[in-house]
# Entry
Amino acid sequence: MSAPARILIVEDEQHLADGLKFNLDAEGYSADVVDSGETALERLLNSAGDGYDLVVLDVMLPGKDGFTVVSELRAAKQFVPVLILTARGRPEDVLNGFAAGADDYLPKPTELAILIARANSLLRRSGWTRRNTDQFTFAGRTIDFATLELRVGKRAFPLTLMEANLLRYLVEHEGTAVSRKAMLEDVWSLREDTDTRAIDNFIVRLRRYIEKDAAAPRHLQTVRGVGYRFVAAPAEK
# Structure
């Protein structure tokens, strides 16, 4: 029998933290609780070989807030999936969470069943990515879905789980115009009314890695009025 997934809850309101831990433990996970961003970073960045599989992270924390915690994790090349859970649910807050490197976002209050479903989804996607060690190579670039890296020549760009899943989805639909709505729903299980600028921001970032000229993209093409299309070998102009 495999060990239960480990989840770190970062929440400074004790009653909420206790409730989350109780319910996640009841679902068969192994949940720990810390109450500050600094403690979370110390725990996550010093858990080599015995790390967490998921972080449930509040934004409004004493000291370093949740956005800063995610940014510092990603800067340290720590790509554990992060589910942000916060009362700050305005569209700009959602976009800030995604831009910082979060993998999912739920506003408070939220139903427990929805939280559990989102946690399960992130854990499944993360496990699936680790099991599927395939790579995709195109135009001198290699996407490694196991190590969450995009290699261009001798340079390696770390990817978040969200970025890797978005790239995989576009690669799997190569040559097809994919709508922003489809990407939000199929890749990240987000509502179709979520601000689609989140998708646009991710594409901008990925183009910086992939394209020779991000201002004139050839691989991650914009399809006006629809979304985006991935082309591995665009026709020479």
Notes: The domain at 6-130 is CATH 3.40.50.2300 (Rossmann fold). The CA atoms of residues 48 and 78 lie 10 Å apart. The chain has a mean pLDDT of 84. The chain has two domains: 6-130, 132-230.
